[in-house]
Automatic annotation (TrEMBL):
Keywords from the UniProt entry: Aminoacyl-tRNA synthetase, ATP-binding, Ligase, Nucleotide-binding, Phosphoprotein, Protein biosynthesis
Entries under InterPro entries matching the protein: aa-tRNA-synth_I_CS, aa-tRNA-synth_Ic, Rossmann-like_a/b/a_fold, Trp-tRNA-ligase, uS15_NS1_RNA-bd_sf, WHEP-TRS_dom
Cited Gene3D superfamilies: HUPs, S15/NS1, RNA-binding, Tyrosyl-Transfer RNA Synthetase
Protein known as: Tryptophan--tRNA ligase, cytoplasmic
Species this chain originates from: Merluccius polli (Benguela hake)
One BP term from GO: tryptophanyl-tRNA aminoacylation
Gene: WARS
Keyword set includes Signal: no
Amino acid sequence: MTDSQGDGVGGVTAMDLYEKLTAQGDKVRSLKTAKADKAEVDAAIQLLLKLKVDYKGVSGQDYKAGCPPSESAVVSNNGQSGNGAEEDTVDPWNVATNSAKGVDYDKLIVRFGSSKVDQELVDRIEKVSGQKPHHFLRRGIFFSHRDMHQVLDAYEKQKAFYLYTGRGPSSQAMHVGHLIPFIFTKWLQDVFDIPLVIQLTDDEKYLWKDLTLEDCHRFAVENAKDIIACGFDVNKTFIFSDLDYMGSSPEFYRNVVKIQKHVTFNQVKGIFGFTDSDCIGKISFPAIQAAPSFSNSFPQIFKGRKDVQCLIPCAIDQDPYFRMTRDVAPRIGYPKPALLHSTFFPALQGAQTKMSASDANSSIFLTDTPKQIKNKVNKHAFSGGKDTVEEHRQHGGNPDIDVSFMYLTFFMEDDEKLEKIRQDYSSGALLTGELKKMLIETLQPIITAHQEKRKNVTDEMVKQFMTPRSLDFNF
Ligand code: TRP
């Protein structure tokens, strides 16, 4: 299945998909009638489901046999319009589900047309990098990917790649969830020893939020300090604010314009749900988030080369941007970026949504004191435990919906210890208060250490990271 089918970008019309769906429906029926091999029937059904998802993405309607798509179809975010209410909502602006366990990530893989990070891929990363895979990989936190095998194939043949990730600086306050992609990206940079570019989309936040340009730019620089505190190698990392870099790099802007020429309003409407009343800045912004995926946007780093493969670690809600990017890439003569997607960091109140920087009680902030951390966890972390100690001892708790346990899967490195906690909590041997205490004791030193490192990040260092320059790498 090609991307253009998955994306509804690049010339695949609702009618094309409707016809494919009708044919695939016939195929499934005839396989069933012929009592074909189960694997074959399953594969055909899988494809049928995927086509239905694509069809909805492009047409905004549910597929109905015998009812071709109508012209007036309303297209919305990832095909979430119409009666898709029971589906999880996952787009760059909203994450919501009705399930206490959180978003159904396996379904998302089918819906987005990405691939699962399976044991084979984790083993391969271990083999190629020569390092024990990060616990985010071992535990399915980075759970989905696009084209990782291709990146590893090339790397094995001494063809390097580069990393690209980013952050929208919407406020000064970053929370622990914001660190997840950066912690993981730092690990990738270390084990593969490759350059990294980090985009701070102060322009995006200006366009979407009620903030001044000055505020957004200031937040970008402040957030850069938290990012630098994650330990990135200054000789291999370029951090940039769009407001600064766009105007100073002709090469970057040329790529933005190229992308803008190859994506229609209709396509971004389908992917992002833009409407006629959205400002034109929003409508053209996806091209700016796409541009760093192409190496010649950074001539100072890649010496003008346009063929260095890019790998983007990000949370899965950013995938719409990169589906669009991957669709455009071959049409403007560039390689498609590969991706590694993470799950969301749940809000303290439960995995129905992700942490939000605008709700102080939903998050553990990087500026919280040990006491604040303790109070927030004790007071707000949703518990999968039973109401009374007696009941809990008898029936045990449910780690799958317990936010403290979920946080430990992100921050406790020791697999055996974590597994023991899971078992003890499930059996009732471990009480909610005790579990919370373990989380508090895990988080406090991590946050304190982060604050120490951030304090040591000087303005001079920020300037160094944010100056366009060549990096310590030979391309
Ligand atoms: N749009 C992202 C946000 O609001 C920021 C971002 C830009 C990003 N480029 C990226 C995130 C690349 C991940 C990867 O946070």
